[in-house]
Amino acid sequence: MGYAPRGLAEKRYLMTPGPTPVPPQVLAAMALPIVHHRSPDFKPTYKRCLERLKEVYRTDGDVLLYTASGTAGLESVVANLTSPGDRVVVVSAGYFGERWAQIAETYGCDLDHIRYEWGEAPSADDLAARLAELGGASAVLVTQSETSTGVVADVRALAAAAKDAGSLVGVDAISSLGAIPCETDEWGLDSVVSGSQKALMSPPGLATVSVSAAAWEHGAKATAPRFYLDWERTRNAQEQLDAAFTPAVSIVIGLNIALKLILERGLDATFEEHVRLGRACREGVKAMGLELFSPDDDSSAVVTTVRVPDPVDGTQLLLDLRDRFGITLAPGQGPLKGKVFRIGHIGFFDVFDITTALAGIELSLAEAGADIERGVAVTRALETYEHQPA
Amino acid sequence: MGYAPRGLAEKRYLMTPGPTPVPPQVLAAMALPIVHHRSPDFKPTYKRCLERLKEVYRTDGDVLLYTASGTAGLESVVANLTSPGDRVVVVSAGYFGERWAQIAETYGCDLDHIRYEWGEAPSADDLAARLAELGGASAVLVTQSETSTGVVADVRALAAAAKDAGSLVGVDAISSLGAIPCETDEWGLDSVVSGSQKALMSPPGLATVSVSAAAWEHGAKATAPRFYLDWERTRNAQEQLDAAFTPAVSIVIGLNIALKLILERGLDATFEEHVRLGRACREGVKAMGLELFSPDDDSSAVVTTVRVPDPVDGTQLLLDLRDRFGITLAPGQGPLKGKVFRIGHIGFFDVFDITTALAGIELSLAEAGADIERGVAVTRALETYEHQPA
């Protein structure tokens, strides 16, 4: 079916921070015959899926569902909340933070960009100071998990600073929603964007966008043109259990099952599991003598970013892992290209995925001439996973 | 899995003009484990899919692939080809033609709307006259198959009139591409939009958009804001066999298989099959004494629209067919609500789907007190399909 090119290993280990592996129950549902989106074969599933999304978002407000990549969800925030000339502050520290800025510029916002080095963690104090200097801003756009570096920002603190200055808060939680706590209502987040293909362990194709009461109020005045991504059009349809446009029914059916699995385990238990997987990964990586690029603390629960050791070529390392072992890791992006590699550990992922990654990395690095400790990483990772680290 | 609500018939007959039934090979591929879109597990499939799309479009130009509903494809035409204030002529004769007009208005175009009654066929002479009156227009937007009425417009003639006046031509071919001839290059169509879930017999979730050389040239000057739907961003990625944003990999893999099936049978043979299915449907409908709303000629190869006979309630008829027999037809929309029903016959559809629809309709109508001829529709449909009509 055009799926397995010749010459590659048969089994696949997808360990990128998106797309992520999808549980077999979800995959099986993808193969069900197509049903009409306005039929009783679909509507109860759609209803449950929308309800479950609210639970995962921890919001009583609206969560809108779009057939699109996550980036379209980000664009919907700018298109529905801003008018040309509005002052918008973007806080960025990597590839995806930059995307917020690009979108805001595309829409003619008066962009104020607080730009950190890749790998730095944004500071709420910096944001508060800048907002005070500016005399406020219409909206502040932040990234919870900067997938390009592995750094998780303190969105609660950033949001509080924005709120204090009277700004609306848009959050890119594409790789973080369902992996780590994102308290939409409690933290006062006005619009949180996520995607089906990350911690929500579904195939790519759906973007989700929460909208607070304040965002609705502000959005009614926004003049940027938008049709497909217009929030109101989608809300009006969803209130009738309809979709404004034919949705990707297969993926909605899959997502509904994945959300059920997540909520059955419990959101807090799921967050704890991601913390433990992050710990196991970091301890294993360090045990073989590698240096972490992402922070060595429990905030690193989404993706672990590791420096490529001398004399290894980072690009070649990932090709070797992929072509010999079927292990797909994520490369460094932008200024980190070739300098780091990234191990995603969100969604349908367990500790033996971590040990598989570590075992493969260990072998490839050793063969490439890196001076690393052999035979300890897997054991250390498992021990860390089972017991709290010292 | 939340798929089959209790109390409905077990087997399903999806006979709407979208979503349409999907071949089992395509469904099976949807259940394959998720692969990374930048990996060799995906790229050869992606490449073939893009090549096959060009064959189906009959173009040597670009065909862009978006993870989105078809409407986003329509919006991309307006967003990439127009600037606020540009004169745009929309030719509409139903629900989907109206959508072109709504999008053009949303983007601040100087809209000139040639609006026909629902069920009428647009005339190229009317368009030519209006363009002459206006002294031209930046773009003309037309609908090939108006799914809400079953009327297929003569896009070749409309495009010729637009070209004569120096306008770019955007075509909504969402329900027609792959069902009936749409000669993108030969007819000089600047942008043709389609979707995965119609005649391309794949799950909903992908929109396709062709872009001519003239459209690229004009688009470079367009000032409407767009990020996700920006044509150039997607073309630049596709030229590297990349996607600008994580695509719905499962649906791309499915679409690639569906396109292979279509091209193996041959595009012309596929068009001929749709003509024969349309004939069979019309002759069967007429044989039981019903009146057609869509034209009684071979242009009606996408959807057959039938008037609901007295004393039957059109809404109740469709509920009866759905809940008792699992047959899903499409209702009338807008001014046709309750007055007509629509039988889609595109994509993975054969003559026994037609006879199933006819048999179900015959029984439901008779029980609802309609004065119809019994026992002739199925035979007439099959005979018509096998032999040319008299």
In short:
2 copies of one chain form a homodimer. Chain A is α/β, with parallel strands linked by helices.
Task: Describe this entry's structure for a reader.
The structure is a homodimer of 390-residue chains. Chain A has 2 domains: 24-264, Aspartate Aminotransferase, domain 2; 266-386, Alpha-Beta Complex (Aspartate Aminotransferase, domain 1), CATH 3.90.1150.10. Chain A is built from 13 helices and 14 strands. Chain A has helices spanning 24-30, 43-57, 70-81, 95-106, 124-134, 155-164, 213-219, 231-239, 249-265, 267-287, 314-325, 351-367, 377-386, and strands at residues 13-14, 62-67, 87-92, 110-115, 139-143, 145-146, 151-152, 168-172, 191-195, 206-211, 303-307, 327-328, 330-331, 340-344. A 7-stranded mixed sheet of chain A has the order 2-10-9-8-5-3-4, sandwiched between helices. The longest helix of chain A has 21 residues, at 267-287. The first copy, chain A, is globular, with a radius of gyration of 21 Å. Chains A and B meet through helix 1, helix 2, helix 3, helix 4 and helix 9 of A and helix 1, helix 2, helix 3, helix 4 and helix 9 of B.
